[in-house]
Amino acid sequence: MGFHSYIRAVGTGPKSNRELTKNETIDAIESILNQSVHSEQIAAFLLGWRVRLETVEELKTTLEVCNKYIKRVKIENSIELGYPFDGKADNPYLLPLIPKYLKKFDLNLVVSGDEIQPAKKGLTIKQLYENIEFDDNIFYFDRADYFKELNDLTKIRNILGLRTAFNTVEKLLNPGTSDYAVNAAFHKPYVAKYNQIFGNNYKNLIIVKGNEGTPEIFSKCKYWQTIDGKISEYIIDPEYFGINYKKSTDIIPPEESLNMTKNPSDELEKLAKLNAAMFLVAAQKADDIKIAFEMIE
Fold first, then answer.
1. What residues have CB less than 8 Å from 43, skipping those under 6 apart?
2. Residue 175: in which H helix or E strand, if any?
3. The Glycosyl transferase family 3 N-terminal domain covers which part of the protein (predicted)?
4. CA triple 261-262-263, angle to 5 deg
5. What DSSP element (H or E) covers 285?
6. Domains in the chain: boundaries
7. Mean pLDDT in the chain?
């Protein structure tokens, strides 16, 4: 079946749009990743698909296709952190501050980086890695090395300039074959969707309403965890732990953001401890974030 039929399936309006079959999704995604069709066709499909809204089954199949291309290296006792590839703009990264609190628990963190993707133009994990020395229990995977085909789509995605289905699936591609993961969701309906797409790949998956779509907690928020097949909701309030960090409401220049991470305030360090506690819960080393925080303290 020609690629034009896939474009028609997602881009001809409510009366004619339809869900792609599993085989169609496989063929479409392989054609995109291999760039065996024109870049204009790729952009048209991704845009139409986003507007029509990708189904859970289509996204699950997309992840299955991606798995065929990924080069993995097993990182023992690790948690994969689902950072977005469009960066962070309003607050500094906590990531480099967290690992030291996890060493006594023999926990490793796995993160992925690439050139910036649409749609937010923030400081990326790749830029963070290039400017700040990571602790030895953070394992950084560059997508140009472990998934070159998706890395090669960067130019097309940036010309399109909009979020696509790849923004959803790329955050948890699991290059370190981690047993645990923490992902972020802006809206509650995505919690069930992310569990359907990614849940079976991990012993435990936590979804958090993190800062700027990252798995980092800066203020009062919710997180969700599936226990015995049921999604349970919890609240984390930094003030309960004596943390009074005030989030920025303005874009922070990259150099300033990096400097804030390199020279953290007391409140940022406290936030790093709280985030480390959440990771202990994700790794099933504690059942409750309050207990986990006490373990770190």
1. 156, 159, 160
2. none
3. 6-60
4. 90
5. none
6. 3-69, 78-296
7. 96
Characterise 171 by phi-psi region: left (phi > 0), alpha (psi -120 to 50), beta (else): alpha
105 CB-near residues (< 8 Å, 6+ apart): 280, 283, 285, 295
Q: Which CATH architecture has domain 3-69?
A: Up-down Bundle (1.20)
Q: What's the pLDDT tens digit per position in 114-164? A: 999 998 889 999 999 999 999 999 999 999 999 999 999 999 999 999 999
Question: What is the sign, positive or negative, of the torsion defined by CA atoms of 154, 160, 163, 166?
Answer: negative
CA angle 172, 173, 179 (to 5 degrees): 70
- Per-position DSSP letters for 71-102, written without gaps between them: -----TTEEEE---TT-B-SS---GGGSGGGT
In CATH, the number for domain 78-296 is: 3.40.1030.10
CA angle 207, 70, 94 (to 5 degrees): 40
- Sequence letter at residue 91: N
**44 alpha-carbon distance from chain centroid:** 24
